[in-house]
Amino acid sequence: MQRIMGVYAKLTNEPTLGELSSRSFSGKAFEGDALSSENFEEAQQGIALTLNYSIEEGLEDHSLQKNKKSPGWFHCSRSSANPRKRKILVAVLIGVLLVLSICATALANFKGRPSSMSTADEIEDNEVSSRSQSRGEGGEVASFSFVQPQSKYIFANDDVVIPPFSTLDPVEDLDIYDYDRPLSSSPSARLDPLINRQNKRVIPTNAWYQNMLRLGADEEPTKHHRVYTVPYVLDAAGDFAGIRIHATRPEATATQVRMATDEPYALTLGAMTDISGDFPVSKLDKGYSVHEATNLGLTLHWDSYMKTTLVRGSPYVTMIYNMIDPAVTEGILPTMHWRLDTSELPIVDGNRTVDCESEPVFTVERDLELAFLNSGQRWLVFFSRPVQLKCKNTRGSPTIFQVLKGQDQSDDSKLVIRGALVVSNFSPADEVEVFSEMYANQLRASADVYPGQSTTVTHSFNEENSSAKITFHWDPHSMRTANGYIVDQKLMISGSTDKKMIMFALPHHQEILVGNILPTLCTFSLLGPVCLVEGNVWEMYEGLPAVDYQAARHPHPKYLPVLAQALVEDIRYQIPSNFLSGAGDTYFSGKTIAKLARILLIAEEVKDLCESASAGGSNSEHVEACDGLELPGDEDVEDALNQLREAVTVWVKTNSETPFVYDNAWGGLISCGCLYQGGKCTNQVPDCPAFTDQGLNFGNGFYNDHHFHYGYHIYAAAVLAHFDSSWAIDHYEDVTLLVRDYANPSEEDKSFPVFRNKDWYRGHSWASGLTEPMFGNIMNQESSSEAIMAYEAVALFGKTMTAIFQDAGDLDKASVAKMMHKIGLTLTATEIRSTQRYWQIQQNVDSSEKTFPELYTTSVVGILWETFAEFTTWFGNAPYLIYGIQLLPLTPISEARDKIQWAKEIYQPLTESCNGACVSEGWSIQVNAILATIGGVQEAIEGILRVPSTAYKHAGGNGHSKSNSLWYVSTRPTIDNPSFTSEEKFEVIFDQIGEEHEILDNYNDVNISEDIAVELSCFNPMKCSNEVLDSDAEGYSCRQRIIYLMNVLGKSELDGCRQVAVNEYPAECGLCGPSTL
């Protein structure tokens, strides 16, 4: 999310693309795409290979061993031909024996490991695993334990297909405007095969491979059309058609980690003209067409000649060729290309070397091994059948190998080539050469099985222990049959088979994955060590959190008086009039409406608590605390509820001034966009600026931040449903429409992509959408906490509607709502797990447990990209902003979100950075929340009481209220040994205009925003009057926006006034344009 006081930071646009070509990219069907009628058993058993190598060739327990005699070409001793292997024979023998011992021990430990699977290595401090804790005073840490089922067989509904939340058409059934967006930001014709194949109108907009979907019809791929599959970065920008495979390595500073690549070292696996020059120059179009897109993979075609599926976690890159395609007769041949010279002669099938100058054409039965100068890289290339290769490898020129067409290809229409880098080992304690040989042998042993284009992610649930099973189906295919020829045959999942693919698992997978993890075969990734896993299917068991409107315990009786006083004031909170009419952005409007929803919930909880106390149903402390307590009156509560109902209805019924419209091009709900002036929108549908202005509404029209924005609105709607079941039934489909936009679980819903923002492999979501220009680091997400809230909202709405429909006797809808609750819980749990791994960076742990390299010294990630992590935000670099954006909003799920050990670690840098701007802009609310989390509840209560009331109108505090802040702090559990000292406590000072502020001792010299406000003139005192400065500019006054830029971003008064009055809000604030301009 790119925030600058409500304005999306504008990006520099590249030249717009011309009119889309009418050219079709569908091409002919790839021969044999349908499942072959070949005998499944033959495909399942595969060729009779003895992959039980000699000691130097592979690990026996990792082999794919058959009792049949192996072909002579593979049975040959590899050591006789490879000098490198002879040198390390003894080292390998020792290493293998150690590995066998370690694996046996690890397996025993794995089988006997405890069932509790916390997001941390173990639940720390006084966290408890019991989920049955009743709410009470004080209490312990909320019970969010990730419990692994004892047996996978208790998931009786494994094969149940999750139904859609709804199949109503947004336009035809729900009266939403439809909209045809400009061609310049619509899907190109290269996506036509995907649309036609799936027979639906929706395309992913926030996927990990989004940059690959952005290739224009008449455009050649660039290096920005790329993906990070782990461990490779892949693009299609090589010298000819195909996939370019980049090795990656981590580079770190104190505030950044990136996966760097070296372009000259890449392998391009594709097709080009015969290098012999015997054919006229003919080239395949480098541009690809997209034929399949799942959450785990993306399938690309180059006409009908070759195709590849780019799959997350694959140690290989696989290309499948149609060797009877006309392109072959025109001299287009499968090609492997490196720009580097080899450092030694290539090794063929592990038993001989070849000199390309003296033997330019030779036969390879199975694999080719190459090592290169400068890069130190070692590559293995595997072939599905014996092939004849032509090579070109002269000093100073690129290294090129091409597959020649054989004389008799009647049975060999397909050829599969797989390329793999022998990666670097993650553990520096391992011997490099020993690791390389072990890893290379594992690549050889597993090269036969590769993931197909129909990878899927499925879910099933067990209600007895509140857990979910998340399954990755890798769609295994075999590239060999018993006769050694390719069939591209899908393997059967059921039944016994020794053929198992290997894939890389991220650290959070390894916490919950039930499978054969190979802990000695790990390498680097952006997110820490990734280790190989054997298996055609991954099963991961995730404990689900308890999602509710209240915390695990009631507010402490001691703080009920101050909480009640805040409620009496906050219950009268007035949502800004422009948000009540739907004139404004979807982000701040959602935060504001959800703010009132939280106030109502807390008022209900406290009133119920005190009523119970007066009736003798509570403990003596609550009875005493509630005695004589003034609480919000029924009339005030009713007025607040009516206001909530009005605001929520305006937005979900899309009868707002900036209504939601349905995007026919990509398939999604877009806020039309508000050209705001004088408290109203001056435009109406079909004049929707959101589709052309990336800077409007944080880029909502380009699918940025949908889960953040809509999550707040759904949360407010869930609360309203909690209070008003009749409204809930009447508007169920309206709210569900927002849920479907980012949390649709089913392909049967033809109106929205499945899980728009969620990346199931990485576990978290992506906030960026169709940004232009594309980012080199691909997709990103800033606020992990708001992503968690978005899924918490889905779970709450599903839970609330389940009860309402059950009471109404509508069991069918109750069943759907119950599934929405479960899906919401699963989305929430996985988002929390990845957040705690990849955003909440603990430094006070052993180096082996750290996510990032030692050089990265901060304790949080501000923005996480696919190949980059950085300590910053879109709206400023102050540490309190970077920590703060990961700590809002404060809802019951926040307790499960913020690990106590991490909270203890961030408290000091967070408080040290919290200056006057931090306080006045509302960011100190999060500081106090962390203080309470680590045990300083009393001090945090005092801190909240000192937050200036104006702070709740600013960017850091406008989603909070005093009531919600006090409620959150007062419901924190009792913690032994609180992690703060008296020197770090807040003090109160008064600035020149008498406002009370809280700052730290070492920040007495900072400027407080109200000081600036007194003298603000924008160097144009004749025109820039207080009336102009106080004019509303999309929810904030001109004065507030200018002060924000000065305090938070460090801009001068001149620059701040210029940005707001001249560049951003000339209609509202233009008279404050500096006169020097």
From TrEMBL:
Cross-referenced Pfam families: Glyco_hydro81C, Glyco_hydro_81
Top EC group: hydrolase
Recorded GO MF terms: endo-1,3(4)-beta-glucanase activity; glucan endo-1,3-beta-D-glucosidase activity
Domain Glycosyl hydrolase family 81 C-terminal: 561-942
UniProt entry keywords in alphabetical sequence: Carbohydrate metabolism, Cell wall biogenesis/degradation, Glycosidase, Hydrolase, Membrane, Polysaccharide degradation, Transmembrane, Transmembrane helix
Presence of keyword Transcription: no
This enzyme's EC code(s): 3.2.1.39
Reactions accelerated catalytically: Hydrolysis of (1->3)-beta-D-glucosidic linkages in (1->3)-beta-D-glucans
BP terms from Gene Ontology: cell wall organization; polysaccharide catabolic process
Superkingdom classification of source: Eukaryota
Glycosyl hydrolase family 81 N-terminal domain mapped to chain residues: 198-330
Residue numbers spanned by region Disordered: 113-140
TM stretches of this protein: 88-108
Listed InterPro entries: Endo-beta-glucanase (IPR005200), GH81_C (IPR040720), GH81_N (IPR040451)
Recorded family membership: Belongs to the glycosyl hydrolase 81 family.
Protein name: glucan endo-1,3-beta-D-glucosidase
